[in-house]
Write a sequence for this structure.
């Protein structure tokens, strides 16, 4: 095996859009018709639209409670002044506003449990768990691993690096997906935002990683597909950050459908259209957003 001198001791990765390519759709009314049927089976009578509205309301109120409990009632803004001036808003089906820079997190299990309780049903933990899983299944359009992910993670570890996962994710969804794709053994540590009630780019999430594993921030590289959460958040915590740009994922980010080619080979429900640097490529194509704002490739090995 060829040994490579690494630029960092610790390599930290985002998950969705970086290692796993996923598309979910929570707006499709067919999703809520199926979920309403599930709730009806268990004694909670909802119409599809009613359930969708109730879900958005419950999420918003859970976020409000999380802000109050974990952020002292103040919504965190760990972003630059320029980014703050470009805050975008997304209105949910209940007319609620989700600000992309709010960094508080919830556990989605509490939302689905409340939806039962609001109809007079007291669900046990197994029912709540399976409701979460079924929701993830019916909202997932596709999920697949980007090409050569395991190979690159393995080579980092073989060359002496420690590899960590820091992801804005619900454990009830993500644990299964990590297991299905066989990714867990490639990480020295895995942290998910639902475990700590705050998420990237909140500096507390990065600090939790640093404290948990005894990391030296200048010896860390954070790689992810979000310029604010993964790059600016890392730099605020004293780490270097790199912006990953998979061609296929960036197309979806601009609102274009991937097409979902089921015929080509790939690890997941659909094959990836991602084009890497060729068979002998030693790095993932990215835009470097370090202090110099230069463009190059992440030195992954």
């Amino acid at each position: 095996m060829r040994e490579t001198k690494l630029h960092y001791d610790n390599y930290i990765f985002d998950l969705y859009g970086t290692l796993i390519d996923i598309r979910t759709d929570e707006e499709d009314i067919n999703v809520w018709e199926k979920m309403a049927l599930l709730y009806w089976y268990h004694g909670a009578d909802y119409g599809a639209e009613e359930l969708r509205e109730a879900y958005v309301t419950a999420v918003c109120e859970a976020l409000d409670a999380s802000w109050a409990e974990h952020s002292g009632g103040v919504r965190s803004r760990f972003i630059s002044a320029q980014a703050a001036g470009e805050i975008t808003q997304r209105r949910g089906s209940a007319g609620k506003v989700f600000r992309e820079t709010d960094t508080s997190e919830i556990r989605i299990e509490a939302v689905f449990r409340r939806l039962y309780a609001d109809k007079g049903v007291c669900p046990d933990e197994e029912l709540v768990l399976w409701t979460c899983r079924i929701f993830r299944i019916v909202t997932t359009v596709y999920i697949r691993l980007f090409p050569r992910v395991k190979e690159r993670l393995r080579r980092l570890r073989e060359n002496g690096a420690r590899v960590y996962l820091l992801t804005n994710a619900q454990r009830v969804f993500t644990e299964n997906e990590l297991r299905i794709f066989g990714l867990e053994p490639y990480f020295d540590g895995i942290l998910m935002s639902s475990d700590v009630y705050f998420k990237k780019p909140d500096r507390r999430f990065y600090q939790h990683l640093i404290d948990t594993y005894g990391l030296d921030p200048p010896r860390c590289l954070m790689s992810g597909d979000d310029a604010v959460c993964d790059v600016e958040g890392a730099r605020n915590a004293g780490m270097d950050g790199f912006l990953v740009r998979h061609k296929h994922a960036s197309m979806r980010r601009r609102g274009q459908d991937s097409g979902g080619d089921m015929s080509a080979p790939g690890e997941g429900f659909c094959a990836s259209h991602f084009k890497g640097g060729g068979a002998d490529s030693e790095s993932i194509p990215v835009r470097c957003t370090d202090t110099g704002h230069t463009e190059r490739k992440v030195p992954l090995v």
Q: What stands out?
A: Residues 73-101, 250-301 have pLDDT under 50 and may be disordered. The longest helix spans residues 48-70. The radius of gyration is 20 Å. The CA atoms of residues 66 and 104 lie 6 Å apart.
